[in-house]
């Protein structure tokens, strides 16, 4: 995956990439308490608590291909 990291016009970090279907997506800081993740026109607004809850699922999927422990 080609991940391009830059900054927004407001100075927030932003990582741009394409998903498996070639759709433009991004991960972007949104202030100090949240990030935005998703398709450029329709990004989710996630707080730290959301990211904290999602990280174990993402890590398990990365290691085993499943969100749940087996």
In one word, what is the shape?
globular
The level of helicity is 10-25%
Q: Proportion of β residues?
A: 35-45%
User: Major β-sheet, in short?
Assistant: 5 strands, antiparallel
Textual characterization of the structure:
The radius of gyration is 13 Å and the shape is globular. A hairpin with a 5-residue loop joins strand 2 and strand 3 (24-30). The mean pLDDT is 90. The protein is α+β, with helices and mostly antiparallel strands. It has a five-stranded antiparallel beta sheet with strand order 1-2-3-4-5. The chain is built from one helix and five strands.
Task: Tell me briefly what this model is.
With 70 residues, this protein is α+β, with helices and mostly antiparallel strands. It has one helix spanning 48-64, and strands at 4-7, 13-18, 24-30, 34-39, 42-47.
Topology:
Elements: E1 4-7, E2 13-18, E3 24-30, E4 34-39, E5 42-47, H1 48-64
Antiparallel strand pairs: 1-2, 2-3, 3-4, 4-5
Key features?
globular; five-stranded antiparallel beta sheet; 1 helix; alpha+beta
